[in-house]
């Protein structure tokens, strides 16, 4: 017989499954772990808009730092 905690885990998995499908449709490039972390941060009070801005800024920085020196000077 499933316990209440098993039911909660199953519900959380279903939520992440749905969010992953939405993420794929929106081409967010977030995997299940990243989505789970984002949900957890938002549930703990992080502003969703601020979180989205941080993710975009981090991606931009990674993109800039991964370019070769010749590419960034063009």
From TrEMBL:
Keyword Cytoplasm among UniProt keywords: yes
Origin superkingdom: Eukaryota
Keywords, sorted A to Z: Cytoplasm, Cytoskeleton
Subcellular location, record wording: Cytoplasm, Cytoskeleton, Microtubule organizing center, Spindle pole body
GO CC terms of this entry: gamma-tubulin ring complex; interphase microtubule organizing center; mitotic spindle pole body; spindle
Pfam families membership: MOZART1
Entry annotated with the keyword Cytoplasm: yes
An example Gene Ontology biological process: mitotic spindle assembly
Chain coiled-coil ranges: none
Homology family: Belongs to the MOZART1 family.
Function: Required for gamma-tubulin complex recruitment to the microtubule organizing center (MTOC).
Subunit record text: Part of the gamma-tubulin complex.
Protein name (record): Mitotic-spindle organizing protein 1
């Amino acid at each position: 017989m499933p316990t209440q905690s098993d039911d909660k885990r199953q519900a959380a998995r279903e939520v992440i499954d749905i969010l992953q499908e939405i993420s794929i449709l929106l081409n967010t490039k977030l995997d299940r772990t990243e989505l789970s972390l984002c949900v957890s941060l938002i549930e703990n009070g992080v502003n969703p808009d601020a979180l989205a801005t941080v993710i975009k800024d981090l991606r931009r920085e990674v993109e800039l730092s991964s370019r070769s020196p010749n590419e960034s000077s063009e």
